[in-house]
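Before the break, one more example. Copy the sequence into your notebook; we will annotate it together after we see the structure.
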Amino acid sequence: MFEISDFYRYCKNNDVDVIPYEGCPQPGATVRDNGFYAVFLDFTKIRSTKLLRGVCFHELGHIATGALHKVDSPYELVERSEYRATRWCVENYLTEEAFRTAFAAGYTELWQLSEYFDLPEKSIQDALTYWKERKGIDFTK
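Here is what the structure looks like once it is written out:
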């Protein structure tokens, strides 16, 4: 299960700066400059611990995979970078086994899984979509 400490530990161990920055277009953004990474967090847009966990969860995927895109590049697709970052997070934290454990404990609805994993519903939905549609996992068996 993902913890915010996983994000900060990874950043510390890999010399990634975490910078509070009011005015980001999104609650979080990862940038790379000559091999150095920084994550900007706009705490004016992060209204809950669950959302902070979701932002850190997703940005960790960008850092770990290097899945970033140039803002003005006609050749790099935003969706591709987002998918790679999400896939890494899901494979490392919202694993098939983690979902099976949650389902066995009676958590079956999206909102229940969101509470169980303490992540936004979007993160949970993205993970379920990955496991069901991309990997063909049937959680009813």
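The first strand starts at residue 17 and ends at 20. The helical segments are 4-13, 49-65, 78-92, 96-104, 110-117, 121-134. Try to locate both features in your own notes.
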